[in-house]
Each structure stands twice: as C-alpha cells, then as structure tokens.
Amino acid sequence: MFGIRWPKMVFMALLGGVVALGCVQRRLIVRSNPPGARVIVDDTYEMGITPVAFSYTYYGTRKIKLIRDGYETLTVYQSLPAPWYQWPVLDFITENLIPWEIRDERVVEYQLRPQAVVPTEQLIRRAGELRRVAHGGQLPPVRPTQTPASGSPGTSAPPTPPAPTSPPAPQQPNPYLPPGGFVPPPVPAPPRSAP
C-alpha cells in the first residue's frame, strides 16, 4: 500500500518545489535630476521621492508624474515593453517551471526644468485682458479701414459705418433650476411588483 503511494508523493513534492521556485521579479527605478521629486504612477499610486524603486506586475505604458517645488511638473507616458521571455506561452514556462528567479529591472531617468517666473507686470496685464473679455462678454469692435475720398477715379463711395451694437440682454435665471444651475441626475423608480 505504501509502496505505490511513495513514488507519487515524491513526484508531487518535486513538482511543487519546482513550481514554487520559478518567478520573474519586475522592478522599476525612477530617478530625476535634481532628485527629490514626488513620483505618482497612473494618477493613483504615490510611489515616493526620487530616486525610488518599486515592483510592478504588468508591462505596458505607465503614466509617470514627477512633482517638485520650484520645477515644472513633468508628466511622461513611459513604455515598459515585455521582454522575450514574457511573451505568451514562454511566460508560463518562466513564471512556473524554471527553478530560479529572473529579475527584470528597468531604470528611467528624467530631467526636470526650473519653473518659469512670469514678471509681475506681465501677469497683471494678462489678468486685466482676461477680466475685460470676461466682463464684456464680447470682442472689441473691428475698426473700419481707411478708404480714399469719393470722387477719385476708380473708387466707390466709402462703406457705411457699422451700426452700433448694444450688449446682449442678460439672461434671466431659469426658475426651474436650483441656484448655481446644478441639476442632480434622476433617480430611477423602483420596479413595480405584479399584483
């Protein structure tokens, strides 16, 4: 009875040991110049401060954002292509049957640019322009071009100046909307039960 089971148990133990040993360790190292930038991956995971290393599971394109005070925020779509031993069918062998660990370590390095300082006068001028456009609600009128005086040979009468335009009447608030104009989505009615 034990003689028949013994080879099966040894085979299962060996197979379990081989399967437990094979794996691929994926690691990404992010460096920045200057160091000390926060690293956010895929707009969700804050990985730490550069230089930083972290493990990942899937290959593909990752959105990496580096943020540091005094520097422009850098957003990069970094491609992490799969190596040949991670192609379909081969990946099963490397993940499960090879009795040693495979390390796939990638290093990416980014150069951060100092943040541009806008002079105060330029900032105030741009703010004034935006304020005028926002409060006026319309573009400034176009000036008519100068035409030669009438009566000259080969010319026609000067064009009539455009009629003065009045600003559009302010729109009355909709009495059916709550203040601020936000309308919550409709709530579906519960299903009726048959009588």
Description of the molecule:
- The chain has 3 helices and 7 strands; from the N terminus they run H-E-E-E-E-E-E-H-E-H.
- It has 195 residues and is α+β, with helices and mostly antiparallel strands.
- The protein has a domain at 2-111: Sandwich (Immunoglobulin-like).
- The protein has a 4-stranded antiparallel β-sheet, with no helix packed on it.
- The longest helix is centred in the first third of the chain and has 20 residues, at 2-21.
- Residues 147-155 have low confidence and may be disordered.
Please sum up the structure shown.
Helix content is about 25%, strand content about 25%. The protein is of the alpha+beta class. A 4-stranded antiparallel beta sheet has the order 3-2-5-6, with no helix packed on it. The chain has a 3-stranded mixed beta sheet with strand order 4-1-7.
Number of helices: 3
Largest sheet: 4 strands, antiparallel
Distance between the termini: 66 Å
Tell me the overall shape: flat
Number of E-type strands: 7
Low-confidence stretches: 147-155
Quickly give the structural class. alpha+beta
| N to C succession of SSEs | HEEEEEEHEH
> What share of residues is helical?
10-25%
The strand line-up of the biggest sheet is: 3-2-5-6
Output the radius of gyration.
35 Å
* Relative strand content: 25-35%
Q: The CATH topology of the domain at 2-111 is what?
A: Immunoglobulin-like
Topology:
Blueprint (H helix, E strand, L loop, with lengths): L1 H20 L1 E11 L4 E4 L3 E5 L2 E4 L4 E8 L6 E7 L9 H7 L4 E11 L8 H17 L59
Parallel strand pairs: 1-7
Antiparallel strand pairs: 1-4, 2-3, 2-5, 5-6
